[in-house]
Every structure is written in C-alpha cells, then in structure tokens.
Fold this sequence. Notes:
The complex is a heterodimer.
Chain A: H1 2-7, H2 19-31, E1 46-50, E2 54-60, E3 63-65, E4 68-71, E5 77-81, E6 84-90, H3 92-113, H4 119-132, E7 139-147, E8 150-156, E9 162-164, E10 167-170, H5 174-184, H6 191-208, E11 216-222, E12 226-233
Antiparallel strand pairs in A: 1-2, 1-10, 2-11, 3-4, 5-6, 6-7, 7-8, 8-9, 11-12
Helix pairs in contact in A: 3-4, 5-6
Chain B: H1 15-25, H2 28-48, E1 77-82, E2 87-92, E3 95-97, E4 100-103, E5 109-113, E6 116-122, H3 124-145, H4 151-164, E7 172-179, E8 185-190, E9 196-199, E10 201-205, H5 208-218, H6 234-251, E11 258-265, E12 268-275
Antiparallel strand pairs in B: 1-2, 1-10, 2-11, 3-4, 5-6, 6-7, 7-8, 8-9, 11-12
Helix pairs in contact in B: 1-2, 5-6
Amino acid sequence: xxxVSVCQxxxxxxxxxxxxxxALLEADxxxxxxxxxxxxKTGTTICGLVYKDGVVLGAxxxxxxxxxxxxxxxxxxxxxxxNVYCCGxxxxxxxxxxxxxxxxxxxxxxxxxxRPPRVATANRMLxxxxxRYQGYIGAALVLGGVDCNGPHLYSIYPHGSTDKLPxxxxxxxxxxxxxxxxxxxxxxxxxxxxxxxxxxxIAAGIFNDLGSGSNIDLCVITKGKVDYLRPxxxxxxxxxxxxxxxxxxxxTGVLTKTVTPLNLEVVEESxxxxxxx
Amino acid sequence: MTLPADGGTxxxxxxSAQETQDLSTSGGHIAVIQRVLVRQLKMISAQACGANxxxxxxxxxxxxxxxxxxxxxxxxxxxxxxxxxxxxVASDTRLSEGYSIHSRDSPKCYKLTDTTxxxxxxxxxxxxxxxxxxxxxxxxxxxxxxxxxxxxxxxxMLSTILYGRRFFPYYVYNIIGGLDEEGRxxxxxxxxxxxxxxxxxxxxxxxxxxxQPLLDNQIGFKNMENVEQVPLxxxxxxxxxxxxFISAAERDVYTGDALKICIITKEGIxxxxxxxxxx
Lengths: 277, 279
C-alpha cells in the first residue's frame, strides 16, 4: 500500500512554468548581444572500483563555470542510502537534485519493504528517471554500494543507459582515470591497494584534465561500514602569497553616511562558518 | 550503366527507361547482363518505394557543411609592468587545447633585443610565426641602420605587421616590455589587429580579466583613498607579479604549471622561474 503512494505521480519535482518566460528573456538578451548564464558543469573526474570487501568511489573537487573555477572544493560523492553512495558528473544542479530525489524515494521504498535498500534498486530508479527526460537532465553517475548480494558498481549515462562493471570512470577526466585503471586493476584487491589505485586514477584526471582539479575525495563502502574520506588527499595546495593585501580603515572612500537605529530584541543566535579556503 | 554510390536509395524510377534504351543499342551478351541488372535495380526500387509509390527517405544524401576553423586557442596569460628604471614581462608556461595540456614548459616571453621582451598569448601557431617575422625584421633593421631597434620602434613596427593581416588576423595578444631611450621602463599593449598604446602595466591572455583589476588597484592605486602613492620598486613588483599569478592559477584553468619572469634593466635581462599549481 505504501508502495502505491511511492509510485504515484509526485505533485512536487519539476515545474515547467518558466520555460516560456525564459525563451522570451533569452531572445531579448541575444538582441542586446549578450548571452544568458550557462548552467554550471562540474568538469570532473569520478571513478569507482569493486575490491575484495566492497566498493571504493573516488572524485575530484573542482566545479567549473566555462573555463573559470567556480568552486575549488565541492563535494561530488552524494549520499543515497547508508550503504549506497553515488558520484556525479555533468551539470552540477542535475546531479545534486537527481541523487537527492532518488535518495528520498529509496528511503521510502526501504521503509515500505522493511529491508535495507539494494544498489540495483537505486540503479533502476535512476535510469528510469533519466530516460524519462531523454537526456535533458545532464547527469552522468557512478553508483556504488554493498547490499545483501555483495558489492555492486554501476555507471549511469544521462540518456538512461547503465553498465554493471568491476571498474568505471566518468566525466571529462574519465580517459585519464581509465588509463590508470586499465594498467593496474586486478580482481579482489586489498583495501589499501584499492584506495591507492582510485587515488592515482583521480590524480591522473586532476593533473591531465583542465576540467578537474583540487583535492581527491574517497568513499570506501563495506558490509557494515562506510568511510567517507573528504579530503583523502590534498593533491594541490594554494600557493603562498608573500605580499600583504589587507586595506586600512578609510581606504574605501565614503560619500555619505546615514545611521538609523533599529530597536530589536535578540531571540536566537547561531553561527555558521564560511568556507574561506 | 552505373549504380548510385550510396547503395541504391536514390535510384530514380525513370532510369529504367534509359536502361531499356541501352539494351536495344548494345551487343548480345552485354544486353543479357544489363537486363539482369535492370531487374535487380527494379527489385531495389520496389523496396525503396512506399505504399503509394513515392520514395522513402532513409537518410540525408546530399551536400553536408563542415566547419574548419583555422584558429585554435592555446591559453596562457601574459603580464608586463614598467618601473622607474626596469621593466618586467611575466608569463605562465602552460600550453593547452580544449581540456588537455600540450606542454607544461612552453613560456610565452620571447627575448627580442637586450632591452626588449615580448609576451605573446592566444593561438600558438600564430605566436611562433609572428615572433619569427619580428626577429627577421629586427635583423634587417640592424643591417640597414647599423643600430638595434628601440622598444618604441619595435612597438610601431609590430602594429603595422599586425594591421597588414587585418582581414585574416594573427590570433595573438601581444605585450611588449622594455626600456625606452631614456632608460625608463616601457610597456606597450596590442590587440590582435595592431591597435596599441603605451601603458604602465597590462595583463593579457586567458586570465587577463582577473588580473587587470588587481593591477589597477595595486599599481595604479585605483579605488583607494588616503594611500601613500609610492612608486613601485623592483623587489615589490616581482613579489606582486608572483602573488598575482598564484591567484590567477587558482581560478583560471588555462593558467598554471610554472611562471617565468623576465626582469629587464640596463644591466641586461634576468629570468626567474616559480612553480605554480599543476591541476
């Protein structure tokens, strides 16, 4: 019965109300000779492999907007369920939202069946959604996890095709990473060797592909445990600047100053640190 | 009688009339072969036709437009600063194309004379050809006029060389750094078709939009009040150039690997190489 509610058409999700307005705006912008903002892609090198006790997933941490780095330390390994994680390449918003939607549905499904979720289920849900959108959702995923049938690894393409393989790579740096895998992959590796191989594959993508960079994140999934290593390796450190670029008070010219006191009562205070790296 | 090259789908139904004409005019055994081939062609034409006898389109068979671009973008950033008695020309050493790196050691500064260095970024093929042409013209000038070209003269000459190719430009962003006749630092910046002006500092290439505002603030003291406008010393300028490239390598994917700085003084040209991010 609960399964029926999961399969029902969701009222939430995608809404296409802005499409007509966007088309008009785009035409207006193009008339002025400018271009509308492009969706941010992740460039990316992601990979996964199956080893003796489970699955190792790896990803770089650079997000690019055109050829400018938008985020130097973004997280590309997404949570699907306690035993299933998914790396995402392609359009950043698409990978983020798709994995969140499937994670939510998988949790409901798992509560309905009363069993821990299986990797094949997540794979089926992802491919059915991506095929429904005919490739317009630009999400290329590497899905890995351990369930009652053992460790599983899938690669999922934006149009909805999937491959079940012992080792996969995706993203603009996938060729560099696959070269490393094809050289050194063996079945039933030990954990340390598997982590080293995934680290080296992502490093190949980071150094040889301009769309990938910064640090290496790893996620090791075994029968009872998940090791989310972020960052596993800081392959590139920011250069140290020798000059001092702080400005004294009064450097920015103030034209006018108006002070309006607000009489407020502090009810709650919370502090959230910003990532200033 | 020739079959169409794309396997028969553009077979015309009126060609069968021509075939029968051929049959009547040619010799005995050839006529038999032709009659067999005509029957085969008619069979193909039956499959190729739809229910109403019209041709079914299986694929587009006709001229296809391909675009060949004579230019490529090889990335790289160049920067030049002019001081009281020195000039700096700096460039990164990465050569890229698309998402790949061709070389991590391809500097973009080229030494022209003892007092002038040029930095070229953009399309590497045109950078190489342009520098070859400039070096040849420098030699010709030296042989005719019995002296080396001054920085200002090289700048004026480069402008005419670039404008000579106004309608198929050299895809190169040039910046010349050197000492003028009075020994003071000079920087000349160009656009791809030869427009130039003398500057105190200029950034060109892929990260130029990121570097230029920073230089405007630190060297030109723009958007700042109550600051002591001290003229730039050589040590401070070198330190600033290194810091500025470290920041550019953080955010621009085309800039990185290493930084090469050419410091031009009346003593000569000194080079410094500093490593940058390799990702």
